[in-house]
Amino acid sequence: MTLKKMNILIIEDDEDLNKAYQMIISSAGHTVVSAFDGQQALDILKDKPDPDIIFLDLRMPVMSGIEFLHEFKPESHKSTIVVFSNYDAQDEVDKAFELGAHRYILKARAAPKELLRIIDEIATQRNT
Amino acid sequence: MDPNYLKNIRVLVTEDDEDDWLITKRIFSQIANSPFVVDWAPTYGDAVKAIDEDSYDVYLLDYRLGEKTGTQILEYARPESRRQPFILMTGTSDKTVEAKSLKLAAADYLVKGSFDATLLSRTLLYAMQRKYLEQQRIDQLVELNQAKEDFISIASHQLRTPATGVKQYLGMLIEGFAGDIPKSQLELLENAYRNNERQLKIINDLLKVAQVDSGKLRLQNGVVNIYELVEEVVEELRATIKERGQKLTLDADKKTLSSLKLECDVDAVRMVIENIIDNASKYSSENSTISVEVTSADNAVCIAIRDKGVGITEEDLPRLFEKFVRFDNSLSTKVGGSGLGLYWAKRIIDLHGGRIDYEPNRSKGSIFTITLPKSTKTVKKITH
Questions:
Q1: Residue of A88, A93, A109 to mutate for B, most B C-beta atoms under 10 A
Q2: For B210, which residue in chain A has the nearest alpha carbon?
Q3: A116 close to B (CB below 8 A)
């Protein structure tokens, strides 16, 4: 079965990481838009609401991932939200889940293959 | 001493004999320009209540308090951990009481009838001054320690982002995102990738330890079948250990363990088990076997990890679980690492109310045993 290609929003403040995620994800044929902080992401979402997946970094300047979730209110949207997490950020991840995030991926483990595997998993879930 | 201290100094005199209290009160009234405001606590209970409420700047304790004694108040208050000085008084000079008072960290010792207003005032003020200076030193140390922890945390966070970037781009190259790579080049990239993984692991170890040291770590409540957890870890590590030319075995009384659920922070406990098995393998030579055994005792589950590796010398043993400690042995340079893994592991297992023990393996090598309590009643309060 060919999985549907996903519309994906990446919110990550580190330019190089943001670019790497874009390259990895677009290489698999998905459509990617990227933002460098929560505020930029909200602006993008005004024009292009409800991407299939949002990859969300938590610690960002201007508007953090947590602040973004407060504003965005995931429960009123269809997007699957994947939080980028670190070993020492469990509290923030808990908070993100309370605010409606769906899954998390440890940044240290987010190798290209792993990232694409998660997208495929979500695509399968969304298809069924 | 802070000059602001020199007025309205609240003194609590604990004295069960009203006549003696009146004498002490009179001596206080003879202090010229007295900075002291003096109250009376006639019983042990009154004194303890005032100490709990932290209402006074200095405590003067009579030794005899009906059925109780002033030294019992010292035992209760633990002056070494407080900002206020405690001074003991006795009716007659008594070497035994004086020794006990000294041991229990009283700031001074007075014998009734042998002090006048001047000596009393001086004793109190100097005792307060000593406490004040001690507290200043403690505050400085706490600040310094905080600065050190902040530095480690900030530096590690700053190091982590670029190291993660390197991981992504190397990963992309290796996985062919920029086209096929000749085998000879791929090998070099894989070496770079492995070293970057090591670097990230050290950075993450530093951050994990900073988190546990700052008291900010909150264990996640989870429930797991401990045998299945160990089995998962063993299966995950088997390939790596095989690559090192070693064997990994798992032994357990499945019958007893299959129904045993353990409340713990599953991810943290998993990382501890991973860490100890991985250490056992890293510090063992090729063709060596690492054996893991899970057993159930009355109130606890034990996970024993045995290797026939380099072991720990008796000399090194006392520092085994200390931070940043790495022992010199034939494999230590090759293995690398931050010297934080075992320290962190011990802290995590401690927080679960368990322990990690070490004993030398009979023939050669080490046995590490992780003991976790079955009941969470013994789990220490986790939120700091």
A1: A88
A2: A88
A3: no
Closest to A13 in 3D by CA, of A57, A48, A67: A57
Give the nearest partner residue to B208 out of A14, A87, A107, using CB atoms. Answer: A87
Please state, in angstroms and rounded to a whole number, the distance separating the CA atoms of residues A73 and A96: 11
Q: pLDDT tens digits for B70-124?
A: 999 999 999 999 999 999 999 988 999 999 999 999 999 999 999 999 999 999 9
B348 neighbourhood in chain A, CB within 8 Å: none
Q: What is the DSSP string of B157-193?
A: HHHHHHHHHHHHHHHHHHTTTTS---HHHHHHHHHHH
- What percent of chain B has a predicted confidence (pLDDT) above 70? 95
**Which two three-digit tokens encode residue B46?**
């009154």
**How many other C-beta atoms are found inside a 10 Å radius of the C-beta of residue B235?**
11
Query: What rounded mean pLDDT belongs to chain A?
Result: 89
Q: pLDDT at position B299, please?
A: 85
Contact A24 B168 (CB under 8 A): yes
pLDDT digits (tens, 9 = 90+) for B363-374: 789 999 999 998
Under an 8 A CB cutoff, do A88 and B175 touch?
Answer: no
Q: Retrieve residue B320's tokens.
A: 């085994």
